[in-house]
Amino acid sequence: MGRKIRIGSRASRLAVVQSELVMAEIRKILPEADLELVTMKTTGDKILHKTLDKIGGKGLFLKELDAALLAGQVDICVHSLKDVPVTENPALPIGAYSVRELPADVLVFPKETSHWNPALPVGCASARRKMQFQQLYPEAVIQPVRGNVLTRLEKLDSGEYGALILAEAGLKRLGLSDRIAYRFSPEELVPAAGQGILAIQTRAGEYADLLARLNSPDGALCAKTERQLASLLGGDCSAPVGCHAQLHGTDMTLYGFSGIGGVPRYGSVQGNRNDADLLVQQLASKLTITE
């Protein structure tokens, strides 16, 4: 039996599935490693009666896991990248990015229902999704919905909501792609920075060789480009900001949305993937509100 590596994860079913995906990749690289999954409920999982922007943002999903990493209680943590603040802790850097799962936002209806009942509210926990959806459907009534994906689906199926807006990646990883009623294009609803990508985090300077082999170069390029744009737009994990990069061979199309200040702004730019930094600057200029 090889070296023991403890993988830290939130306790939700989706978080565990995502951590198990990374653990499977680690086993391919280090077949003799003794892997242990360590799950915990984070502050963001425990406080469900308020929206995240009222309690400190999505960084609350990392608080306990960060502390466990720093204390040496776990060795590697796996996160949905869209939940990781764009300002990283240098002591706990993101060491690798996964291959991207389908990144779109999707509309989900109650079970056995093929249409949206506008008499019921649309459940949405994100200011980014809410503002963009209201541009598409101004008459829609949107109400917050908290909890993990399975909890939200239970609330939908019990009649509390007429529809939910969720990330396709999470549904697919949970084997629930059949619940998707409609997939939004990035021109309609720009995803969050890093949506569909897993972030693999550890203590600075540790597991460098393993992280290099786990890292997806395309995933890393998209992730870093999107997070750079989000940072320039002033978008933390709870701000109404969307950033999404699509790769087409040597080219990149970068989509952006900003609702900061209450004014919705959309834009996109295209160019060579090697000029990602330039594309970020160009799109940030288009989307930034100037007095």
UniProtKB/TrEMBL annotation:
Keywords: Porphyrin biosynthesis, Transferase. This is Hydroxymethylbilane synthase. Its cofactor is dipyrromethane. It comes from Ruminococcus callidus ATCC 27760. It comes from the Bacteria. Monomer. Residues 5-206 form the Porphobilinogen deaminase N-terminal domain. Gene3D superfamilies: Periplasmic binding protein-like II, Porphobilinogen deaminase, C-terminal domain. Belongs to the HMBS family. InterPro entries: HemC, Porphobilin_deaminase_cofac_BS, Porphobilin_deaminase_N, Porphobilinogen_deaminase_C, Porphobilinogen_deaminase_C_sf. Tetrapolymerization of the monopyrrole PBG into the hydroxymethylbilane pre-uroporphyrinogen in several discrete steps. The keyword Kinase does not apply. GO terms for molecular function: hydroxymethylbilane synthase activity. GO terms for biological process: heme biosynthetic process. Signal peptide: none annotated. Residues 220-287 form the Porphobilinogen deaminase C-terminal domain. Its EC number is 2.5.1.61. It catalyses: 4 porphobilinogen + H2O = hydroxymethylbilane + 4 NH4(+). It is an enzyme of class 2 (transferase). The keyword Transferase applies.
